[in-house]
Amino acid sequence: MALTLLRGMRTPISFRSSTGLFFTVLRPRLARFTTRAESAQATEAKAAAKSIQLATKEASEQKLQGFEAIIGIETHVQLSTVTKAFCSCPYNYGSQPNSTICPTCMGHPGTLPVLNEKVVECAVKLGLALNCEISMTSKFDRKQYFYPDLPKGYQISQFDIPIAKKGYVDLDLPVEFGGGHRKFGITRVHMEEDAGKLLHSESGSYSQVDLNRAGVPLLEIVSEPDMRTGIEAAEYGAELQRIVRYLGVSNGNMQEGSLRCDVNVSVRPVGQSEFGTKVEIKNMNSFSEINRAIDYEISRQILLHKEGQADQIVQETRLWDESSQKTFTMRKKEGLADYRYFPEPDLPEVVLTTDYIDEISKSMPELPEAKRRRYENMGLSMQDVLFLANDDNVAHFFDSTLEHGADAKLACNWIMGDIAAYLKNEKLSIDETKLTPLELSELIASIKNGIISGKIGKEILVELISKGGTVKGVIEEKDLVQV
Ligand SMILES: [Zn+2]
């Protein structure tokens, strides 16, 4: 009761104790959105793709040899809140080590955590986006374990009552990987805090600890074991990344550790109902690494089965090594009992009202799946649809161009072709260029009306995207009218 930090309460979340809420705001989105250049290249290779699809399918079936893989994923998403989950420290990736810490996030005795309201808001947003049931009452629990970068000796998490559960995610596999729609179950979404980070010396003789990340809010998303291949798992991860970016709750950047996927893989003979021993894989820094790590692990386990050494598949954590393209043992996995969870005595229950959830629900943007279906209904190909909906900045640019009267297919061709190539080359995102949706629609109209040729149009685009200005201005300035 002594430590009550109450800066203001905007939304009707109530707590069953005297502890107040720490009101913070989301910082502007920091994400640098990359474009899906692979998809653009894939357009050219459309004909080749079909035969590759068949070959890939045959190869993977041959590799499975009567076995099937069961894959589930635990994803940690770091929230882009201004302050940490239970104290007023900020968190900025790459800050001077131990510069954004306080007695609370360092776990000093006598300090008390105070929940950041924005963490609850982000959790509800993500829960709704993943079609989950939202728990009107949930609570925090302590997960006990010792680790040098965990100063308190426990992690505040949610154990038996997560804030959201029983959801699903819809996605479309890329055409070059065989295509098709998939629906994967979401078991739960819960709130927790991050640990610090160990920095190992080059000689390996000592390690240093940076506690800046300790106490940073995370959402953990646990999937149902619904994936069967590396590509399905990678696309599931990519869809979560799109969703958190669309929602603005995280920059979803894998290199910075803002989005981390731990994958559980087991294999079993086709027809067997019980699961095989599952192995966890960590340390993957991209979706392509997730894909390759899983496919390697599936092959490794099937080989052990075939050689009569299935007992060598043990419950363990393995790391992916990008240089050798293999997984290797890191440690034997602790069971649930090792964590000795119990309810966090320093935090009240989180009680939500239907008004609060309705308000968040109304503020939700159009999500990737809804966008894909809308673009599909415009008659665009799945390749176009996936490219446009992959990045919400690109989707927004496309939508705005259509609002200015441009034809959907033509606008899409410009965005996926010349514009995407320019962005890739200059390492820019579409909202960082001088080109506006209005001028792109003017450019398309000028070609359509025969004022300029398509070839001249490409030259004008380069001017607009690098220097800005208007289509009319560039045509006059360079005297480009078609005779
Ligand atoms: Zn702190």
From TrEMBL:
Residues 396-483 form the Asn/Gln amidotransferase domain. Signal peptide: none annotated. InterPro entries: Asn/Gln-tRNA_amidoTrfase_suB/E (IPR017959), Asn/Gln-tRNA_Trfase_suB/E_cat (IPR006075), Asn/Gln_amidotransferase (IPR018027), Asn/Gln_tRNA_amidoTrase-B-like (IPR003789), GatB (IPR004413), GatB_C_1 (IPR042114), Gln-tRNA_amidoTrfase_suB_CS (IPR017958), Gln_synth/guanido_kin_cat_dom (IPR014746). GO terms for molecular function: asparaginyl-tRNA synthase (glutamine-hydrolyzing) activity; ATP binding; glutaminyl-tRNA synthase (glutamine-hydrolyzing) activity; transferase activity. GO terms for biological process: glutaminyl-tRNAGln biosynthesis via transamidation; mitochondrial translation. Pfam families: GatB_N, GatB_Yqey. Its EC number is 6.3.5.-. SUPFAM superfamilies: GatB/YqeY motif, Glutamine synthetase/guanido kinase. Keywords: ATP-binding, Chloroplast, Ligase, Mitochondrion, Nucleotide-binding, Plastid, Protein biosynthesis. It is found in: Mitochondrion; Plastid, Chloroplast. It is an enzyme of class 6 (ligase). One of its GO terms (cellular component) is mitochondrion. It catalyses: L-glutamyl-tRNA(Gln) + L-glutamine + ATP + H2O = L-glutaminyl-tRNA(Gln) + L-glutamate + ADP + phosphate + H(+); L-aspartyl-tRNA(Asn) + L-glutamine + ATP + H2O = L-asparaginyl-tRNA(Asn) + L-glutamate + ADP + phosphate + 2 H(+). PANTHER family: GLUTAMYL-TRNA GLN AMIDOTRANSFERASE SUBUNIT B MITOCHONDRIAL AND PROKARYOTIC PET112-RELATED, GLUTAMYL-TRNA(GLN) AMIDOTRANSFERASE SUBUNIT B, MITOCHONDRIAL. Allows the formation of correctly charged Gln-tRNA(Gln) through the transamidation of misacylated Glu-tRNA(Gln) in chloroplasts and mitochondria. The reaction takes place in the presence of glutamine and ATP through an activated gamma-phospho-Glu-tRNA(Gln). Heterotrimer of A, B and C subunits. Belongs to the GatB/GatE family. GatB subfamily. This is Glutamyl-tRNA(Gln) amidotransferase subunit B, chloroplastic/mitochondrial.
